[in-house]
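EI: anyone free to look at a 262-residue chain?
SC: sure, send it
EI:
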Amino acid sequence: MPIHLLPPPAVSVPAQAAPGVDPRDTYGPAMDEEPVTARFAGLRLVHAAIRRDLARLPNALRLLQPDEEDKGEALLRHWTFMTAMLTCHHEQQDTRIWPIVRRFAPELRLLLNWLEADHHNLDHSFTRVTTLVRIASRDTGSAWPVAYAMEDLAARLETHLRIEERQLLPRMDRVVPDTSRLGGLAELLDLLRSADGPGTADALAWLLDGVAPELVERLLAECDDDVARNWPHWQATYQRCTAPLWGPTGGTADSGRGSLAE
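SC: here you go
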């Protein structure tokens, strides 16, 4: 699958908690407010990447010119890739993560039921907008209203992401053992391999581009040797593919903010 994706912003390290204060005693910050842990990296990376893309795609579509057919096709492929990653992310949550959380945190079952139902609603919304993006990628006259539709969908999704990050991840941090792969990057890559969706190379480059090198090394350590061995080639290929679409730097550093922290 061709990739025309966007790099996430660089990772920053948050301030340490005050002595004697357990940061898990609160609901915790949202992804765009510098999370205090890199646990559940698979979930957090997807959230950050989708926020980043939904912040940049509308303006990229507005700037599309009638003679830029190749760029229009690239934007459509990028949108299609992003929606495929979101679908896999929802499948990971609904089939692998939520059942475990229901077992060990039964008080969250109503919230989990709502999140699962909202996943289906969001998937349908993204499918509808995909039809509009397909039209706008070929007819720049419709680019502006479609860009507004993207922004409306981004606002709708943001509510969902914040609920997961503020109400669910802190509770998962308490009930999931530190050694568990649940919600991690390796588990996400396993799911992608078994699903008829984005390839490992495309997904990993999309998730990790722009992440600080020291954190990339930590995340790759969760993966198998084949992934770590091929990462430099995947990264270089990604950069060559994205440069014509987004420019060599992938846009401004602070757009679509969202990151992991150590």
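EI: The chain is about 65% helix and 0% strand.
SC: 👍
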